[in-house]
Design goal:
The longest helix has 15 residues. Helix 2 crosses helix 4 and helix 5 packs parallel to helix 6. The chain has two domains: about 80 residues, Orthogonal Bundle (Chemotaxis Receptor Methyltransferase Cher, domain 1), CATH 1.10.155.10; about 190 residues, Rossmann fold (3-Layer(aba) Sandwich), CATH 3.40.50. The strands form three sheets. Strands 8-4-3-9-10-12-11 form a seven-stranded mixed β-sheet, sandwiched between helices. It has a three-stranded antiparallel β-sheet with strand order 5-7-6. It has a two-stranded antiparallel sheet with strand order 1-2. It starts with 6 loop residues before the first strand and ends in an 11-residue tail after the last strand. The chain has about 290 residues and is α/β, with parallel strands linked by helices. The chain contains ten helices and twelve strands. Helices cover about 35% and strands about 20% of the residues.
């Protein structure tokens, strides 16, 4: 296909080359989302659904709506449509094994562990972290943890704060964790589970765009930033990874998705194992130590 090719969704809405350029430029400028040539059919299919829901007759009309929306919610809807918010509890379970071991061993003298779930989607990741640490630290140790969970999408953050999920999402959860950390729904909530209060209260949800300056000042012992780098080009990846590394305590871990790689990205982190990196430099000290 040449530069003048047009693409249509299943109902015949046509995405023209100029409209694709407008949308891809906007997604890159506002979110760092890299929509390369070849993504036209995907954009037509995913945004076509949004156009039909909103009653727009063309991608150009939808683009004008997005850029003129002062609330910013239309922009969030656009990014929701173009990215995949697929997640699950204990996804890529090796990371949770590393986390549990580090909490018991390397970080044994740290009273309050600071964890950041930097692309938390609908909450499965930060709640998995909370359950993992609750199990690893145990009760009566005098140790605790705080989890900051951020995402660009207000829609998925709203779902995460409800802390209610269908039972099938917990297939990989150990039965002991299910009993310790979940409340079983009854009546009209049958087939759902809700996170118990102590787990839910350990997580603070905030909206954050990773390509913008991080507003928080504290350092973290562990940062999960998984399955989001794939949406960025190399310069954006490098900027984000370098800022993430500066947000880590000395000895802190960065987890990326197993389908991702920091190859070609300059950073000061030490490779530990696939998708696991560690900060050896000190950027200052924070947190309470015994």
């Amino acid at each position: 296909m040449g530069n003048d090719a047009t693409y249509s969704d299943a109902t015949g809405l046509t995405l023209k080359p100029g409209e694709f350029r407008q949308i891809s430029d906007l997604a890159y400028e506002r979110f760092g989302l890299d929509l390369k040539r070849g993504k036209e059919a995907l954009v037509a299919a995913r945004l076509g659904k949004r156009l039909r829901q909103r009653g727009f007759q063309s991608f150009s009309d939808y683009y004008k709506h997005v850029v003129s929306d002062a609330s910013g919610e239309a922009l969030v809807e656009l990014i929701d449509s173009l990215t995949t918010n697929h997640t699950s509890f204990l996804r890529e379970h090796v990371h949770f094994e590393v986390l549990a071991r580090a909490a018991r061993e390397e970080f044994a003298k740290i009273r309050t562990l600071e964890i950041w779930s930097a692309a938390c989607s609908s909450g499965e990741e930060p709640y998995s972290i909370a359950m993992c640490l609750g199990d690893a630290l145990g009760g009566g140790s005098g140790r605790n943890f705080r989890i900051l969970a951020t995402d660009i999408s207000t829609r998925v953050l709203s779902l995460a704060q409800r802390a209610v999920y269908p039972a099938e999402r917990f297939r990989e959860l150990p039965e002991a964790w299910r009993r310790a950390y979940l409340l079983r729904g009854e009546g009209e909530c049958r087939g759902f589970y809700k996170m118990k209060r102590d787990i839910a209260q350990a997580v603070e949800f905030k909206r954050l765009n990773l390509i913008e300056p991080f507003p928080h000042q504290r350092l973290f012992h562990v940062i999960f930033c998984r399955n989001v780098m794939m949406y960025f080009d190399k310069p954006t990846q490098q900027d984000i990874v370098q800022r993430l590394s500066r947000s880590l305590e000395a000895g802190g871990y960065l987890f990326v998705g197993h389908s991702e790689s920091l190859t070609g990205v300059e950073h000061d982190l030490k490779y530990v194992q696939p998708a696991v990196y560690r900060q050896e430099k000190s950027h200052g000290t924070r947190g309470s130590r015994t």
